[in-house]
Automatic annotation (TrEMBL):
This is Phosphatase. Residues 653-675 are annotated as: Disordered. It comes from Nonomuraea jiangxiensis. Pfam families: PhoX. InterPro entries: PhoX, TAT_signal.
Length: 690
């Protein structure tokens, strides 16, 4: 179906974009201006939903046989995926016309726009599920923008929702887990002029507004709409904040590098920060990724000389910038001059068990420390657990973790230790076209495609380091430095990364990298000054997530389709929607790729897109929704029944010059903008995208 007329018309920019394409506010608050299942069974397509549902019912969380509305978007694809046609590599990699089924997507795409609302396709409905300040814990006070308190915030939904996932408790009840990535004090408090002058209460509110939330939700019977449960026991509802007691596990737990005055054993970190996206485990827990942790500390330049290079490599704040949040004014540990190792205690993948409200969140050190964007899991053909991870910054790397032991169905105690022992790898990509063909313009090489081969370089396995000059503990705590040493491929901001539950292809969103020069262009990152980003597809050897070599290609090179330096897997560019800055990726049960954007550089708002990755419609990208002024689209999550899609609308109204007295957005309630999770469903109950 063709785009509506005028879909390409570029609209004026709302504000001058910052270097990464965001408003200066987003840059400052989000990333601290960082720009500057037994599954030896290989015969069946074991969907993640089925694996988790079984695990949860064993734990008594889910009535046997209940068809939960479990998220189908996280790709525990099990063993070799069942393919609709052709070999794995053909379907996932190059199969434009391999006879695979069409996508069954038939909605009319939304037009790119700059409207201050959630714009959805005709025939669909939407509603806000939960917004900043809504009650999470029983007894939470009603949200009062001008009289917010830290005590209230600690019981209410936090700020800037990002990763969203669903854990079923039956057909019409579920838990939602939502990350709260960061706070934007300029929009949260009237007259805010920086952490140096902030009230202590404001700083405490910010600490409490970080972290994550578990909330119980219920389906509006017979529809795809879900609502927050606001009465009754809600025994699982929970807030996790920057002040929640956690623990380290894995090889680096107890390392000298993690010890502080408050925690001389290096085992008990407090709080999590900047949790961006995440993933789920086959045993039904959540993995949440600490991303831009560098901005929360002061005096990074005052650490001992031997630690300095690592502070620099992780871009930890030096000095005491007035505009920073100044958490150190409330908790001394954020001052690295006094507690130099505190920064090492952030930047991890944290595991949370939403069905055990008393559980201690676990920072899993075997997965390395960097600016973790997400952590999506799958199982290798032999049943080992695999976790895919990106480090979201310019010229950073793509990682995967492969557990030593295999996942054993029903053996909860065993499975829960899989994340503590295994091998951490980093990716190396090699193009198959001559270097001269890659000129930085984005013009495809003579063989017609940006593609090639690659392999996973081992960094560390338990207490064995594969990196010369670094101990295993050093590799885990200073993973970026280790990856530098082994010659990993520098990517254009590797964000979300997930395995397709149908084809087995692994997809990586590479958001952008305006700093890449033509000389630095390579076949996997082929555009200089890459404003709009691209999507990378990895097909591992024998389509086995446990393998160490792979082939890869770029099915999507983003931008305005009229721009010759764009590519939509060879699909007719007259038919596709423009897209810029792919960030979060997810799959529906049919294996269609859903892409959320952050920082649209085409002059219109961010949104959610869907693109088939196999069959005749491979590359047929269509825009499903747009978000309000200043917002980015997070989540996204398509429920397993494909009757609902959830998105987190993060930082609405966050544009330069905006403040509570001058709000740039009035979404969602016509008052101050409030970051919120929304759900979209078809008015007549049809499948999402139909
Ligand atoms: Fe929090 Fe990389 O986006
Ligand atoms: Ca090529
Ligand atoms: Ca993101």
């Amino acid at each position: 179906m063709a785009n509506p007329p005028g879909v390409r018309k570029l609209l004026p920019l709302l504000s001058t974009p910052h270097k990464a394409g965001r408003s200066a506010l987003t840059c400052q608050y989000r990333c601290g201006n960082a720009c500057a299942h037994e599954l030896g069974n290989t015969s069946d397509n074991a969907y993640f939903g089925d694996v988790v549902k079984e695990a949860l019912s064993r734990r008594g969380m889910l009535r046997a046989g209940a068809l939960g509305a479990l998220v189908a978007t996280t790709g525990v694809a099990g063993a070799a995926p069942a393919l609709a046609g052709g070999s794995a590599s053909a379907a996932a990699g190059n199969g434009a016309a391999n006879g695979a089924a069409d996508s069954q997507l038939s909605f009319t795409p939304v037009r790119p726009n700059t409207d201050d609302k959630l714009t959805i396709p005709e025939g669909y409905k939407s509603s806000v599920v939960v917004r900043w300040g809504d009650p999470v814990l029983p007894g939470a006070p009603k949200f009062d923008f001008d009289h917010q308190t830290a005590a209230a915030q600690a019981k209410q939904f936090g700020y800037n929702c990002d990763y969203v996932t669903m854990l079923p408790m039956g057909k019409d009840r579920a838990l939602l887990w939502v990350n709260h990535e960061y706070t934007d004090e300029t929009l949260m408090f009237r007259g805010y002029t920086g952490g140096a002058k902030a009230t202590v209460e404001q700083i405490k509110i910010a600490l409490a507004a970080h972290g994550g939330s578990v909330v119980e939700v219920e389906r509006v019977r017979g529809t795809g709409q879900w609502k927050l449960v606001t009465s009754g026991r809600r025994r699982y509802n929970r807030r996790i904040t920057a002040q929640t007691k956690m623990r380290f596990s894995g090889p680096a737990a107890g390392s000298d590098l993690l010890k502080t005055a408050a925690d001389p054993k290096g085992l008990a970190p407090v709080g999590m920060l900047n949790n961006c996206s995440g993933g789920m485990t086959p045993w039904g827990t959540v993995l949440t990724a600490e991303e831009n942790i560098d901005q929360y500390f002061v005096n990074g330049d005052k650490v001992p000389a031997a630690q300095r290079p690592y502070i620099t490599r992780y871009t930890i704040t030096e000095g005491v910038p007035e505009e920073s949040r100044r958490f150190d004014r409330v908790e001394e540990r954020f001052d690295l001059a006094k507690h130099p190792h505190e920064a090492n205690r952030f930047g991890w993948i944290v595991e949370i068990d939403p069905f055990d409200p008393d559980s201690t969140p676990i920072k899993r050190t075997a997965l390395g420390r960097f600016k973790h964007e997400a952590a999506n899991t799958t199982l290798a053909k032999d049943g080992r657990l695999v976790v895919y991870m990106g480090d979201d910054a310019r010229f950073e790397y793509i990682y995967k973790f492969v557990s030593k032991e295999r996942y054993i169905r029903g053996n909860e105690r065993h499975n829960r230790e899989l994340l503590d022992e295994g091998t951490l790898y980093v990716a190396k990509f090699t193009g198959d076209s001559p270097k001269g063909d890659i000129d930085g313009s984005g013009t495809p090489p003579k063989d017609g495609e940006f593609d090639g081969s690659g392999h996973w370089i081992p960094l560390v396995s338990g207490m064995k380091s594969y990196v010369k000059g670094m101990t295993a503990e050093e590799v885990l705590v200073y993973t970026r430095v280790a990856a530098d040493k082994v010659g990993a491929t520098k990517m254009d901001r590797p964000e979300d990364m997930e395995r397709n539950p149908v084809t087995g292809g692994v997809y990586v969103a590479l958001t952008n990298n305006t700093d890449r020069t033509a000389a630095q262009a390579d076949e996997a990152n082929p555009r200089a000054a890459n404003k709009h980003g691209h999507v990378l597809e990895i097909v591992e050897k024998r389509n086995d997530a446990g393998e160490r070599s792979f082939s890869w290609s770029l099915p999507l090179i983003c931008g305005d389709p009229e721009d010759p330096a764009t590519y939509f897997a060879g699909y007719d560019k007259d038919q596709v929607s423009p897209i810029s800055c792919p960030d979060n990726v997810a799959f529906d049960r049919d294996g269609n790729l859903w892409i959320a954007t952050d920082g649209n550089q085409l002059g219109t708002h961010d949104g959610l897109f869907v693109m088939p990755v196999r069959g005749r419609e491979r590359g047929y990208l269509r825009q499903f929704l747009t978000v309000p002024i200043g917002a980015e689209t997070c989540g996204p999550m398509v429920t397993e029944d494909q009757r609902s899609v959830f998105v987190a609308v993060q930082h609405p109204g966050e544009i330069d010059g905006a403040s509570p007295d001058k709000p740039a957005s009035r979404w969602p309630d016509g008052d101050q903008p409030r970051p919120a999770v929304a759900v979209v469903w078809h008015g007549e109950g049809q499948k999402i995208g139909s």
